[in-house]
Each structure stands twice: as C-alpha cells, then as structure tokens.
Design a protein that fits this description.
heterodimer; B: alpha/beta; Alpha-Beta Plaits; six-stranded mixed sheet; four-stranded antiparallel sheet; elongated
Amino acid sequence: MILNVARKELKSVFSSPMGWIILALLMFAFGTYYLNGVNDYFEVMSGAIRPAERYGVTQFVGQTVYGLASFIMLFAVPLLSMRLISEERRSQTLPFLFSAPLSLTEIVLGKFVGLIAFLSILIVYIALMLCTLNIWSDIDFGYILANSLGLFLLVASFSALGLYFSSLTSQPVVAAILSFIALFALMILDRFFAGDPSNTMAQLSLMKHFQSFAGGLIDTADIAYFVLFITTFLILTIRRLDADRLRG
Amino acid sequence: MTNLTVEASELTRIYGGREAVSNVSFNLTQGQVLGFLGPNGAGKSTTMKMLTGNLAPSAGSVKICGIDMIENPKEAKALIGYLPEMRPLYKEFTVDEYLTIAARLHRVPSRNIKKAVENAKERCGLTHMSKRLIENLSNGYQQRVGIAQAIIHNPMVVILDEPTVGLDPIQIRDIRSLIREIGSDHSVILSTHILPEVEMVCDHVQIIDKGNLVFNGGIDVLKRQRIGNKLLIGFKHAPQTADLLQIVGVSEAEAIDKNMIRVRFAENSMPHEAIVQAAVKNGWGLFQIAPDQTSLEDVFVQLTYQDAALAEASAA
C-alpha cells in the first residue's frame, strides 16, 4: 500500500514537465562540475610537487560534485516537497486518500518514499557518472558509496522536513519557503558554533553530519542522527494529519 | 433477513463549542437508498465526513457492516465509496490513470483492475473520455469521474455528497438510474438540495436541521404528508362554497378565486364522483378536478420550521 501511494506520487511528478526539467537541469549542473573537476585535476596535480599534496582523482572530482549536490538539493527538495500535502489540501483531494482503506502512516510514508525514489534517480546518476572515471583510472568505490549514502540520507532528511512543512499549510509556496529557511538554518548551524565544536547546538547541524560521509567515512552515529531526524518529522506529519481528522 | 450496512449511533460533532451535528442515529439496510436533506449548514456534509472516517466524531459511533469505523478504520473504509462535495480529482492525470490509481488504493486485486476501471467507466458513461486529462473535462464529466471513483471497488455502501450538481438534465437522469441500480444490491446515501430528486431515487429520507434529525422515515410517509386529502376544482360558474359542503364527505371548501375552489374531504371518503355529478346536474361548468398536492418544498419547510417553532415554545 505504501508503494501504491508512492507510485501515485511519482506518476504525478512525471505527469508535468516539472519533474523532467528538474532532473535535466540538475544533471546538467552536476555534469558540468564533473567535467570541470576532471579538467582541473591534471592542472592542480601537475602543480603539486610533493607527494603529500597529491590525492586521488575520485576524491578530487567527487568532492566537487557531491559538495555541489548537497548544496543544490537545499533548493531542489523544498521545490519538490512543497506540493506533496499542501497541494492536496488546496485542491481538496485529501478526502480521496483519507477515505481509501489506508492508514495515515501509509499515506505519509508513501508520499515520502515517492519523493525519495525520485531523488534517488539523481543520486544513482551521480554515482554512475563518477564510476565512468574507472575507464582510465582505478577509482575508490568505497568513497563513492559513502558519499552516495550520505547524500541519500541528507536528501531524505530534507524531504521529511519538507513533507512536514507541506502538511502545515495549504499554500505550496509558503511550504517551500518555510522548509527552505528551516533547512538553511540547520545547514549552517555549525558555522555559528565554529569556535566550540562540542556544543550541543552544533551537533544538530545537518551539514556537520554530512561531513564525515563526504570524507568517505560511514559513521553509525551520523546514520543514527539522520534516521532520527527523518523519523521525527515523519511522525510530526502523521500527527498533523491526524489533527485534521480530530479537529476538522 | 435485513442486513444492516450502516449503523450510526448518537453521532455528535462539536466545532469550537457549537454542536454541528448532535445525536444523530440511524440505520441503513442493504438495498436501500437514503436521501439526506437539509438547509445549508445543517450538518449534512459533516455527518457524511464522519460516516466515511474523514472526521472523528466527538461522541457516538459508526459501524459499516458491523465493523467499527473508529476501531478498524481500514476494514471499514474498504467497504465505502465516497464522493465528497468537492470532487477529489487529480487533474494532471487522465481518466484511465486516475481510476486505476483509485482502484489500486482501494485494494482491488491487480488482475481485476483493468476490468474494474472499464466497468466503472461504462456505468458512468465515460468510455469515450478514457484518454482525456481530467483537467480538460467539463464540469459534468468531472462529476462523473468522481462518481466512477466512488463505485470502482464495488463497495457495500456508496456515499455521495450532492452527486447531481453541475450535470445537465440528461446526465442527471442517467446518474439517477445509476444510483437506483447501485441501490438495488448495495446501500446508497446521498445528500441533495433538489427535493424532487429525493422523491425519484430514494426510498428512505432523513431531514436534518441545525444538527438535529427532524425527520427519518420512508419516502411514502413523506409522500402521504404531501398529497393529503385535498382537491382542486375548477368551475366556469363557480357555486357557493355552502353548496359544495352539502356533498357527502366534503369537510371544507375554500374559494381561491372566481373559478377555482379547494376542497378538503374526510379521510376514507371519496367525494370525487359526487362532486362531478353535482356539477353536471347544476351546470357549474366543471373544467378541472385534480388532487391538490403540497409541494415537497412545503413539507420540507414545514418540518424544518416546525422544529424551530417547537424549540421556541420549549424555550418560552
């Protein structure tokens, strides 16, 4: 049932040009950065004389592309997540889902999975693109895997938060702006506490937890953070929809 | 054997301290069509939302075929098809896509989905619109898609909130016969403002006013109330009312204008023939004799008004 709701969401993203255009534009941006990264690699590495300054092509190109991806998703996810619930609220289609034999959890999870599935297309594309480096060099697959997993968790967290803000309002644009502001604040939170990295507030920053994945490190503490983050916002969304039913 | 499909008991819904629906109880058996009448803001839609599990009742319970809506919402919802007041249509899909999604979400087994979609389209006259985007359909066709969506999984209870709004007269006729057809093996609840519609399709009527049920009974009860023991008679040379009162069975006569007279007669008496004979004998120039029907509107106003008067009386 969750999958059926997810299928419906995916279909609705691709039934308008919106889905295709976002995919195309983002892939264009990532592709450009990838090419630039490959070009720059030789320039920079030929300038680096000492062996300590040299590092692998995977890391060099990967950090450019994944750095850009995590930043661009900050804008792309709110744009995609905004319509999930608020659009249904506005066009009064929620009763269609509410009167179908679905629990609220299934509806919310379905919408979440649908969005994640769409964004995963991008993550898989990026990973495939980087794997093409393997044709002329020996690349570090572990690094790509860690980064993909990190990006996936980051994007899933963005989506969960976006879904929650989408459930709060019947204006998709308001939902997009709110989730963008909230995500941006969470992203740069650790900059405010740069002087004191052990501060609890700094620990809440999404970016801080993405950093270790970006370095190629899969840390269970970071995975736990993202999973908790996602669960929290999904539960909040379910509760918000339940309040609709209770308070009307 | 009567199969109860819907049991609503003491449904109450409070919005910010005001009771939108209070203490509404009724039962519906298989094969019945229930008409839900009421002025604007009476609580029709609220009641329907509670029946379909879109809104939690503040008190009371709903059972669909014996399954409690609050305790087992999934099982209960599977037995319901619901068309809300605002059609819940995803306008970016085509009719086929939308109905397929509806069938899938209503747990129609995947091998039957195609058949269910075809069937629903055929019943609602949508076959030639399959590949059109819902956005581009006319109002009436969108309404049909809404109805198709509600009956796609062949539910035990179909709940339609104002199903004939925005349809042309031919479509209305089709939809009414469709409702009758569904009503013959399942149960249908529909709300409407159009009173003759109720008379045509429903066999059970409920009138709700200010959240209270003011009338609940068979359509024949309402019809009887409506027809009454009255005759409207037209004479070219109208007699005195006293002349008419002499005829056996006539209890009251009232001249409306120069030619028309309204006659009330006692229960179980048939003075029609005697009146005609008297008219022929005395040369009154009879040109019309017909039962005088109070319109359903009048009955409706009476019932809702009665309640208000009653409330006033009890308050005084």
